[in-house]
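hiii, so i know i said id send this last week but things got crazy w the move. better late than never?? heres the sequnce for the chain we talked about at the cafe, plus the structure i predicted for it. fair warning i was half asleep when i ran it
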Amino acid sequence: MTTMPPPTPDALASPPATPSAWPTVIGIIAIIFGVLGMLGGCFGGVSVLMLDQFAELMPEQQSTGFEGMLAWKPWLAGLAIIGVFVAALLAIGGIGLLR
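okay and structure toks below
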């Protein structure tokens, strides 16, 4: 009767697992949406600051639409700032996911 030699440590080791690709994809998408959201929030904030100038450029008959926006100006500015902050958090989270 022949006896088999004991298995070597290399034979018992499992093959190395390949890393999953989904964190990279989600991280890149989060960074792209975060940067676009920050740009959109900045443009929204600038447009709120320029509402007075836009209203002055319009004739008297057409400027009535700006009255409602001018009344909501502080809220619109606040939403733009919050939007930039949330988009920055999304971009930072995407960078963290890539690492």
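btw The chain has a mean pLDDT of 86. thought thatd interest u
miss u guys!!
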